[in-house]
Amino acid sequence: MRPMWYILDKDKNPVPAKDMYQANRLLTDTDRRVALDDIIVEDYAITITVSTVFLVLDHNHSPKGKPVLFESMIFNGELNQSLDRYRIWKEAGEGHKKMVELVKNNLWVSRILDKVSAKTSNTKAITKKIIEGLKLELQLN
Question: Helix or strand or coil: residue 90?
C-alpha cells in the first residue's frame, strides 16, 4: 500500500513520513511553498494570487500511479479556485509559471472583451473587433 503522508527531504524531494504527526508539522512550515505570485489588476481593483505548495497528503486517489503532492491554485478573479496538481517540486514550479501566464492571458482577453462590448452589442461586430484586436496585439498583419 502506498503511503498517504509525505515530507520533503533537504533537496525538496517527497519522502514518506514516519507518521501523520510528522507530516502535520510540515503544514505550518513555509518551506513547503514552491511559489507565490500576486498579480495586481488596478483597472479591476483586485489582486489575483497564484499559490503553489507541497500538500503533504497524497492527492492521487487511485491505487495506481505515483503520489500527487503539489498544487497550484488561483485565488480571486474570473479563474478563482482553478487548480492544477503535480508529482514533483520541479514540475510544480513549471506548472506555477504556466498558471501565472494563464491568469495574465485571461486578463488580456477580458480587457479586450470589456472594451469591445462597451462599444457594441452586435455579436458579429464584437467578433470582428476581437479578431482585429488579436491581430494587432500579436502583430499578425
Answer: helix
Give the C-alpha separation, 121 to 43, whole Å: 22
Maximum Cα interatomic distance, the chain, rounded to a whole number of Å: 63
Q: Could you tell me if 41 and 47 are in contact, meaning their C-beta atoms sit under 8 angstroms apart?
A: yes
Q: pTM for the complete prediction?
A: 0.78
Give the C-alpha distances (Å, rounded to integers) separating 42 from 32, 39, 80, 111. 30, 9, 17, 12
Domain that holds residue 16: 6-138
Host H or E run for residue 133: helix 123-138
In a domain, 1, yes or no: no
Structural domain includes residue 124: yes
pLDDT of residue 120: 63
Please compute the mean of the pLDDT values over residues 4-15 and round it to a whole number: 93
Domain count, the chain: 1
In a domain, 34, yes or no: yes
Closest CA to 51 of 29, 24, 76: 76
Q: Which amino acid is at 73?
A: M
Asked, for residue 20, whether it belongs to a domain, the answer is yes
